[in-house]
Specification:
By secondary structure, the protein is α/β, with parallel strands linked by helices. The protein folds into two domains: 101 residues, no CATH class; 250 residues, Rossmann fold, CATH 3.40.50. Helices cover 36% and strands 25% of the residues. The protein contains twelve helices and 14 strands. The strands form two sheets. Strands 4-3-2-1-5-6-7 form a seven-stranded antiparallel sheet, covered by helices on one side. A seven-stranded mixed sheet has the order 10-9-8-11-12-14-13, with helices on both faces. It starts with a helix and ends with a helix.
Length: 387
């Protein structure tokens, strides 16, 4: 057996979670870096060129051979990361492979041991949207320089955008998706819509039809011009209201970012009626329940203004999430750093179940009814979908 292939066998047998293949042998290499990640019983491979990424899923029994094929003659360094050790392969210019294992210390490094620059620390994270990629919307946002470097002053925004893409990727990467029809409600002039389109088409290789919807005519005009400039042929922007919008195709994914107050409810209502497979919603200001709250037994929740406001906002999203659960979605509420640095940093992620357990639906319904009864709430989404 070839030496390098044997080393890959040792790495896989050691139970590594991630393999990073780097240091291209030639500048002309098509792929600049390859990342292999454990996904359940198989492995997911991401192959990064200068401008985009290509992906494939490989069975556990075939991963050693596939890693060898991608590395041999093309790369000179392999790092396999396990829970408490790192497996390192270094390949000389003459092709001689050297293999070693390094224990990973569990103790944290203190500032007195080593001065850690925050920016350097952040850069070590393996972001989906990596530096060096040619992502024009990020350059136009001022997040990337023309040559794909992150602008230091925009690093927080860079992390926030990646966080949203990671939340999408958790679901997208777990499914074999070839085509997606996407509606983005309240897209505004934010470039996140363009970044999502880039991620789905260029990184995941999915055929996408995507519509961004907003109420401002000047925003729609500018966004359509930008889509044309980027060559995003299947991304279009339309003038329209969230409530009552007629989708021109079967909707697979609905994105709603910062739709104010009950606009989020109408977006979720449309998503459910379309039988959308995936919903990603970041609510904005939420006044409805704050005006309604009249607790029967828990009067403390409405005594202090700031507590009343925040509890009402949390209750709004909890009820929304449970309504989606009741209607057959696997629903999570995730922490999400808002682009404008506001306290409203929650994201509702809902994925349609193939089968909804009856007991789970009954529990979700009872929890909703108990909350509404206690505080005399009349949530819009409840009235739209459950009355």
């Amino acid at each position: 057996m070839r030496e390098l292939e044997q080393y890959f066998n040792l790495i896989i047998e050691a139970g590594v979670n991630k393999i990073i293949i780097s240091n291209p042998k030639y500048k002309a290499n098509e792929y600049k870096k390859i990342v292999v990640e454990k996904k359940n019983d198989d492995f997911h491979i991401s192959k990064y060129t200068q401008k985009q990424a290509f992906h494939e899923n490989v069975k556990n029994a075939e991963i050693s051979q596939r890693c060898f094929e991608l590395t041999d003659g093309f790369f000179r360094q392999i790092n396999g990361i396990a829970d408490n050790e790192e497996h390192i392969i270094l390949i000389s210019k003459k092709g001689k492979a050297d293999y070693k294992v390094k224990k990973i210390a569990s103790d944290k490094v203190t500032l007195s041991d080593k001065k850690i620059d925050d920016n350097d620390h952040n850069r070590k994270k393996n972001y989906i949207l990596e530096e060096g990629m040619n992502i024009e919307p990020l350059a136009d946002m001022g997040v990337f320089t023309a040559d794909g470097k992150v602008v230091k002053a925009k690093y927080d925004k860079y992390k926030q955008i990646n966080r949203f893409i990671e939340i999408l990727d958790d679901e997208i990467s777990a499914a074999d998706i070839k085509k997606l029809n996407v509606i983005d409600f309240g897209c505004g002039k934010s470039y996140l819509t363009f970044v999502v389109y880039y991620y789905l088409t260029q990184i995941r290789g999915i055929t996408v039809n995507m519509i961004g919807l907003d109420l401002k005519a000047d925003v729609i005009e500018k966004c359509n011009k930008a889509a044309k400039k980027y060559g995003y042929n299947n991304l279009h922007f339309e003038l329209g209201d969230i409530n009552g919008f007629k989708a021109p195709f079967d909707v697979d994914m609905v994105i709603t970012l910062h739709a104010c107050d009950t606009a989020t409810d109408y977006a979720l209502y449309n998503a459910v009626n379309w039988n959308s497979k995936m919903i990603f919603s970041v609510p904005c200001c939420q006044h409805e329940l704050n005006k309604q709250i009249k607790p029967e037994n828990l009067k403390l929740m409405s005594r202090y203004g700031i507590i009343k406001e925040r509890f009402s906002a949390l209750a709004t999203d909890a009820i929304r999430a449970n309504i989606l659960e009741y209607l057959g979605y696997k629903t999570q509420i995730l922490e999400f750093i808002d682009f404008d640095h506001t306290p409203k940093n929650l994201l509702i992620r809902a994925v349609k179940r193939s089968v909804m357990p009856r007991k789970r639906a009954e529990i979700a319904k009872k929890e909703i009814d108990d909350m509404i009864s206690e505080f005399e709430f009349e949530p819009t989404l409840y009235k739209l979908l459950m009355k």
